[in-house]
Amino acid sequence: MPKAKLVIENLTVRYGEFVAVNKLSFQVKEGEILGMLGPNGAGKSTTIKAILGLVSFEGRIEIAGEDVSSVEVRRKIGYMPQSFSLYQNLTVEENMRFFASIYGVEKSEMSRRMDELLRIAELERWKDKLVKNLSGGMKQRLMLACSMIHDPEMLILDEPTAGVDPPLRRAFWEHFRDLNKEGKTILVTTHYMDEAENCHRLIVMRNGAKMAEGNADEIKRRALGGELILIDSIKKQEALRILKSFGFNSEVVEDKIAVLVENSAKTLPSVVEILRKHNLPVTYAETKKLTLEDAFLKFIGGENG
To answer: Using 50, 70 and 90 to split pLDDT, how confident is the model at 304?
Structure first.
């Protein structure tokens, strides 16, 4: 089993009387991409600030088995913030050199790392250009390059694709997957459900607390309590009565019989066979899973979800 790269136990962050994060616990395994989902104010960015030592907190945070309060431990992290954090009146290369010096990159290594990241970020042609004259997508690529200048073991990305167009979002995630294949552990927050599907595991947060944890399919199944089978029969009400008599949780939804089961693909043949034996031929049948967006809204929406 992969070791835990990041361990958070009973993390609580308070701003006066307001509890921004409430007894949050989770782990990010080595070589994993873990996504944090939640509406604004859910506590995602506050959790990241606690990991980086930017806010006071209660609980325990460890990186690679060491307490995160150590400066040396924090140097194992590359951080790409949600808000723009580069120096507008410096060039691309000057920004990278500045961040390299902050992270303590050796001068003998600095030029090699800069050349490598300029190539990866496709910014070689613009290395002498002032950051204020770059496009939004270029600035995002530069922020990612600066967060990686010291070759960190773990990347923390706070909504790294916010405000960029779909082709660039796709390119970013291709790069994240490549980094992950190279062994980088990644913790990322996102509002985009298609991006969340790229993560090995997800945490759904609401009001500073963890609502659900698991891979995308597990999150979907947990939100509904299982998976759905949708069927139809000429004698719909009779078919519904028979299914209920066999213990199936079923009801009519949008002119179809919806049957809630643990595994829809495995159970569908049994449901069809039960109805056939009772002379109730099935005229329509399909398995139906929630989308990740459906599950997300169910977890964060409370009574309205």
So the answer is: very low
